[in-house]
Amino acid sequence: MMKISAFAQEFKYHTVKKGETVYSISKDYNVSEEEIYKYNPDAKNGIEESSKLVIPLAIKDKGMPVKTGSPSLDPVQFKEHLVKKKETLFSLSQQYNVEIDDIKRYNKQLYSKELQKGETIRIPVFRKLDRVVAKPNNTSKEEIRQKFDKSKVREHIVLPKETKYGIARKYGLTVKELEALNPTVDVLQPGLMLRVGTNVSPDPVVLLDKNFKFYEVKPQETLYGLAQRFHVTQDSILALNPIIKEEGLEWGMVLKVPNPEEQDPEDWVVPGLTSEAENLQGEKVNLKDSLSNFSPKNLVFMLPYSLDKIQVDSAGNGAYKQAVLDDRVLRISLDFYSGAKMAMEDAKELGISTRAKVYDTKRSAAEVANLINTNNFNDVDAVIGPFLQSTTEAAAERLRNKNIPVFTPLSDKEMRGSNNLFIARPTQQTMSNTMLDYLRKFGEGKNVIIVSDSKSFEIKNKLIDIFPSARTINAVNGYVSEASLKNVLLPGAQNWVILESSNVGTISSTVAALNRLLREELDITLFTTNKNDSYDNESITNEDLGKLYFHYPSVDKEYNLEVSADFMTKYQEEYGVTPNQYAVRGYDLTMDVLLRLAASEDIYTSFSHYKGFTEYNENKFLYEPQPGGGFRNKAVYILQINPDLTLQIADDSQSNIFREFKD
């Protein structure tokens, strides 16, 4: 039995013995059955001998030093710090050993703006707390062990990238004391259990679980960031850890997360590699290999900040931060530009310098017209933004005579055609058509079943044109029965079920029935051309979709850690948080624009020189002319959810690999 220590909460890792039930275990640990189910949702389906449960223990004094900078402590004094070039909140938190939130708490302006070179901020200095005093270097290992025999029992499970120094510091030990308590441990490995107290087994215990592992939430981490880190959806994290829905995500929580790096590489296609399915949209182009135009690039960002309204509403009442938090469009704009700034910094390392101007559109087409009329756009190479349809159309129309390209990053709406307008987000129709191309290419020889309702007749007809011999099932009153599906599924064949509906009942009943039919050793893969909002309903779980290797089209993918490690590290150092999807899109789109300008004379020439798609952290770009004028991005990913809840780019040209693993 292993104990996991977390901020303000302890857990024990319990191995189920013969005859034990959730009720008996709850009585042994003096916790409720519901508390056990919170951390072990699968236990609701029963527990088996030798299975493992995470048991939450009552909060109590752990004999651990409280982390310096805890909100429960008041600062003893303050230090004044003059901000230097390239310093960030993250770097200052490391330098002074305080939390970023504590720095912001005593420098309110940092909630709404970035650190400025030359400004002076206050750094709180907290009361030093009693810690375990280290023995002199000549203390023997036996003396150290005897000393800790008198302390409380404590164990620690090693997390990825942890060091002996970091673990020792966390528990008030020296490295020598930590090594004396764990004499058989030489090299740290994630999942290894260390003694940081005594009266426990002297031998190290390795946490062995091929599909899942435990992870301790770090300060400033978000649910989106965790989903990106572990290549899963946010719903998957919530499904594995239902306590987040009830208590929110908190620093120090111990979460159950997928462990994809432990999978056998022969069993899976490596995410991120260009597959045959990817080549449906042409070859990938790396513009970094073709840079030739190193003149400074002039970019204009038109973003819907509407700062005038926030300043008026918040003047003198201390509500500026809350006003920012309450304005979703403003938050998205700030996040997008933070990613764009990182792209411009990275482009500089490639020899591409950028002169950028940022204008607030105030979400008004009239203001866009005013900005263009009162500012000089003659040397502008590209405009990124605006976000909204009316302001985007106004910008493209007024800049058309100057032939200045306007890239709108987030909207997929149809807009009035201007030959200089670039819509960077594919339409739902484009995504559906890409999925149809995928099904046409890889569906030959499969037993295809089309499940639909009366509102999906158009896409159903397109599917029947592709698969004339497909079997069809029509939902009745928003329900699909198990019997109707069983009648059309074939043993020994690859059954491809294509589900077309936006009705929650139709989707949930189909997914549930297919999961039950998997018990009959049927080979079933689920597809849709439109993963709409109904799939977010709590009755449709990613666990059930993963068992069916659910395939769907998507604008973006989950980033590849190997590809994006530098970007993620730099962003976290700069802003103290993991970049969200808008920050990543800001980076990817801005980098694509800058590389196109540096690889050709201008944006338009780049499309005649480079015919394939470009790809970055999460997004890829393949612009094609629109009938009404302008260009739209047609690049789409086909993703699949795996049984371990990871996401990857699908490639059923290698479907035999998946079937072998599945069987």
Architecture overview:
- Belongs to the leucine-binding protein family.
- It holds the Pfam family Peripla_BP_6.
- Residues 12-55, 79-123, 213-257 form the LysM domain.
- By secondary structure, this protein is an alpha/beta fold.
- Among the domains are: 13-60, Membrane-bound Lytic Murein Transglycosylase D, Chain A (Roll), CATH 3.10.350.10; 75-126, LysM domain (Membrane-bound Lytic Murein Transglycosylase D, Chain A, Roll); 287-424 and 565-621, Rossmann fold; 429-554 and 640-662, Rossmann fold (3-Layer(aba) Sandwich), CATH 3.40.50.
- Helices cover 34% and strands 17% of the residues.
- The chain contains 24 helices and 25 strands.
- The strands form eight sheets. A seven-stranded mixed β-sheet has the order 11-10-12-13-14-23-22, sandwiched between helices. It has a four-stranded parallel β-sheet with strand order 16-15-17-18, with helices on both faces. A three-stranded antiparallel β-sheet has the order 1-2-3.
- α13 (328-349) crosses α22 (581-599).
- The chain starts with a strand and ends with a helix.
Task: Map the helices and strands.
Layout: E1 2-6, E2 9-15, H1 22-29, H2 33-39, E3 52-57, E4 75-82, H3 89-96, H4 100-105, E5 120-126, H5 141-149, E6 155-157, H6 164-170, H7 175-181, E7 193-195, E8 212-216, H8 223-229, H9 234-240, H10 243-247, E9 254-258, E10 297-303, H11 307-314, H12 320-326, H13 328-349, E11 354-360, H14 365-374, E12 382-384, H15 389-399, E13 406-408, E14 421-423, H16 428-442, E15 447-452, H17 457-466, E16 471-474, H18 482-486, E17 494-500, H19 504-517, E18 523-527, H20 542-547, E19 551-554, H21 561-575, H22 581-599, H23 603-609, E20 614-615, E21 620-621, E22 623-625, E23 631-633, E24 637-641, E25 647-649, H24 655-662
Parallel strand pairs: 10-11, 10-12, 12-13, 13-14, 14-23, 15-16, 15-17, 17-18
Antiparallel strand pairs: 1-2, 2-3, 4-5, 6-7, 8-9, 19-24, 20-21, 22-23, 24-25
Pfam family, one: Peripla_BP_6
Protein name: LysM peptidoglycan-binding domain-containing protein
InterPro entries: Leu-bd (IPR028081), LysM (IPR018392), LysM_dom_sf (IPR036779), Peripla_BP_I (IPR028082)
